[in-house]
């Protein structure tokens, strides 16, 4: 399960591919907004702006 986060709104998507597609579309529609995608464990995080990936983080350490 992946979450697409825009401001205070959060939408869940069952697959990574669906979440990425939604984030690209949302960020392309609102050029000034940044859209975040993260997995349910919050280990993988992606940030999209203007329809493009601008940041990718994957936490390899467990706390």
How many strand units?
5
Our count of domains comes out at 1
Coarse shape = globular
Strand content: 35-45%
Give the distance, in angstroms, between the N- and C-terminal Cα atoms.
21 Å
Poorly predicted spans: none
Radius of gyration (CA) equals 11 Å
Order of helices and strands: EEHEEE
Largest sheet report: 5 strands, antiparallel
The DSSP helix count reads 1
Q: Which class of secondary structure composition applies to the elements?
A: alpha+beta
Proportion in helices: 10-25%
Rounded mean pLDDT is 93
Strand order of the largest sheet: 2-1-3-4-5
Q: What would you say this structure looks like, in words?
A:
InterPro entries: DUF2188. Pfam families: DUF2188. This is DUF2188 domain-containing protein. The protein has one helix at residues 16-29; strands spanning 2-6, 9-13, 35-39, 44-49, 52-58. It has one domain. The protein contains one helix and five strands. It is an alpha+beta fold. It is globular and about 35 Å long. The longest helix has 14 residues, at 16-29. The two termini are 21 Å apart. The protein has a five-stranded antiparallel β-sheet with strand order 2-1-3-4-5, covered by helices on one side.
């Amino acid at each position: 399960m992946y979450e697409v986060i825009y401001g205070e709104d959060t939408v869940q998507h069952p697959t990574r591919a669906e979440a990425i597609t939604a984030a690209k579309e949302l960020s392309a529609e609102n050029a000034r907004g940044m859209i975040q995608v993260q997995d349910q464990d919050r280990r993988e995080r992606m940030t999209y702006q203007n329809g493009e990936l601008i940041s990718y983080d994957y936490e390899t350490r467990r706390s």
